[in-house]
Structure formats: structure tokens, C-alpha cells
């Protein structure tokens, strides 16, 4: 019970206000608390929204008789650690990695990923969701 | 950290369960066995860091070397569940 409610109850007990007036005051306090909690709710939601820890890959069959399922849960801490280590690589090694990736068709500059940008990247992943619908399987990639 | 492999074939059943404690035991054994090479590498890195002109590269590799345990720590929570027609594989780190 908060301080304001105690004050109202004390005032009723001391006879400063009638029980009816006290009831009205308590009702007003209820409304005030409700309004405050409604205003606080979006803040809590955004806090939860920013808290993603895992990348999920789910492959589920469409047909009941097909029992091939895959469920992979990758901690995003692993991505953070990987990016941190990649950023520590000397420039010439990074070039070699970029060349090797380029040969495989992934033109990518490893030096462009900085540890300070990783949180931004992870936050962006929160919005990402990949849904693939094939004849036999449903593939879902998402972060939560 | 555990690995579980179960076959669905009732005629030739196969069940394998490697509990996490076993992995930690092997990891401990592995560290004990590798303690000498690890110390040698650390001394090597220290000497490399002291060579003039080599400090940038040496420092980078030293930081990578000391970041390896971070990978092991961050791998915790990795889960792979695969179910096929005749086998179920569950790997949990």
C-alpha cells in the first residue's frame, strides 16, 4: 500500500473526512495508478524488444508423415565474439580472408565490421524474419 | 553440454548419451595435456611482442590467442536438434 492511500485511510480514521469522501479519494488514486502504469508499459515493451539473445533456424515438415525436423539455436554472443576476433586480425590477414570470400562469391570487406557496430547489427536482426515455404518444408529464421 | 543420439529403428536400436560432465572432464584432461604447449605459445608471443617492428602483428595475435576462451564461453546455449526418418540428434552446448 502506498503512502497516499495510508494518508487517506488515516484521515478517515481520524474523522477528518467521511468514509464516502475517502472512498472517492481512493478511487481517484486507483485511476491515477492505472494511468501511470499504462504510460510506463511502452517503456517496458521497448526494453524487452531490445533484448535478443538467440538466432533460431526452424525447419518443419508440412506433411505429418515427413518426420524431418531441424531446430538450431545460435547464441548471438557467438556472433559478438566472432566479430571481435575478426576485427583483431591484422590488415593483411583480413585482405586474404576478403579475397578467399570473394572467390566463393561473397564480396565482403571484413574491415568494415567494427565491434562498436555489432550491437547496431544485432538490433537490426531483431526485425529480421525469413520465412520460406516449399512443398515439403517450412523454414523460419528469426531472432528472439 | 550434451550429445544425444537415438535411432528410431526398433530392430537395431542405438542410443548414445554423452553428458556434459564427461565433456568437462575431457576438457580438463585436454587442458592438462596441453598446458606445456600453451605455456610455450605464451612465452613465444611474449618474445614476439618484444621484437622491435613486430609489435602490431604480435599484439594482434596475442589478443586473438587470449580471445579463444571467449569463443568457448559464448558458445554456451548453442542447440542443434535434428530429427530425420530414423534418427534423432540433439546437441546442446
Protein model, in words:
- The complex is a heterodimer of chains A (144) and B (93).
- With 144 residues, chain A is α+β, with helices and mostly antiparallel strands.
- Chain A has two domains: 1-41; 43-143, no CATH class.
- Chain A is built from five helices and four strands, in the order ααββαααββ.
- Chain A has helices spanning 3-14, 19-49, 76-88, 91-103, 118-127, and strands spanning 54-61, 69-75, 129-133, 137-143.
- In chain A, a hairpin with a 7-residue loop joins β1 (54-61) and β2 (69-75).
- The longest helix of chain A has 31 residues, at 19-49.
- The model of chain A is unreliable at 42-48 (pLDDT under 50).
- Chain B is an alpha+beta fold and 93 residues long.
- Helices cover 55% and strands 23% of the residues of chain B.
- Chain B contains two helices and four strands.
- Chain B has helices at residues 20-50, 55-74, and strands at residues 2-7, 15-18, 79-83, 87-92.
- Chain B has a four-stranded antiparallel beta sheet.
- In chain B, α1 runs antiparallel to α2.
- Chain B is elongated.
- The termini of chain B are close together.
- The model of chain B has no long low-confidence stretch (mean pLDDT 88).
- Chains A and B meet through β2 and α3 of A and α2 and β3 of B.
What topology does this entry show?
The complex is a heterodimer of chains A (144) and B (93).
Chain A: H1 3-14, H2 19-49, E1 54-61, E2 69-75, H3 76-88, H4 91-103, H5 118-127, E3 129-133, E4 137-143
Antiparallel strand pairs in A: 1-2, 1-4, 3-4
Helix pairs in contact in A: 1-2
Chain B: E1 2-7, E2 15-18, H1 20-50, H2 55-74, E3 79-83, E4 87-92
Antiparallel strand pairs in B: 1-2, 1-4, 3-4
Helix pairs in contact in B: 1-2
Amino acid at each position: 500500500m502506498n503512502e497516499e492511500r495510508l494518508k487517506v485511510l488515516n484521515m478517515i480514521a481520524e474523522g477528518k473526512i467521511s468514509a464516502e469522501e475517502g472512498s472517492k479519494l481512493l478511487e481517484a488514486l486507483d485511476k491515477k495508478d492505472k494511468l501511470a502504469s499504462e504510460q510506463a508499459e511502452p517503456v517496458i515493451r521497448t526494453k524487452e524488444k531490445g533484448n535478443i539473445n538467440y538466432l533460431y533456424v526452424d525447419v518443419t515438415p508440412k506433411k505429418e508423415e515427413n518426420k524431418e525436423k531441424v531446430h538450431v539455436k545460435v547464441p548471438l554472443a557467438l556472433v559478438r565474439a566472432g566479430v571481435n576476433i575478426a576485427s583483431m586480425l591484422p590488415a593483411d590477414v583480413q585482405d586474404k580472408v576478403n579475397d578467399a570470400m570473394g572467390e566463393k562469391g561473397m564480396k565482403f570487406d571484413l574491415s568494415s565490421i567494427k565491434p562498436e557496430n555489432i550491437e547496431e547489427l544485432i538490433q537490426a536482426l531483431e526485425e529480421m524474419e525469413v520465412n520460406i515455404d516449399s512443398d515439403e518444408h517450412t523454414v523460419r529464421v528469426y531472432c528472439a | 553440454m550434451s550429445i544425444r543420439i537415438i535411432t528410431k529403428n526398433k530392430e537395431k536400436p542405438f542410443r548414445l548419451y554423452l553428458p556434459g560432465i564427461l565433456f568437462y572432464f575431457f576438457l580438463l584432461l585436454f587442458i592438462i595435456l596441453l598446458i606445456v604447449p600453451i605455456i610455450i605459445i605464451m612465452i613465444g608471443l611474449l618474445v614476439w611482442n618484444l621484437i622491435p617492428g613486430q609489435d602490431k602483428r604480435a599484439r594482434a595475435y596475442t589478443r586473438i590467442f587470449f580471445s579463444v576462451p571467449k569463443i568457448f564461453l559464448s558458445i554456451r546455449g548453442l542447440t542443434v536438434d535434428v530429427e530425420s526418418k530414423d534418427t534423432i540428434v540433439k546437441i546442446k552446448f
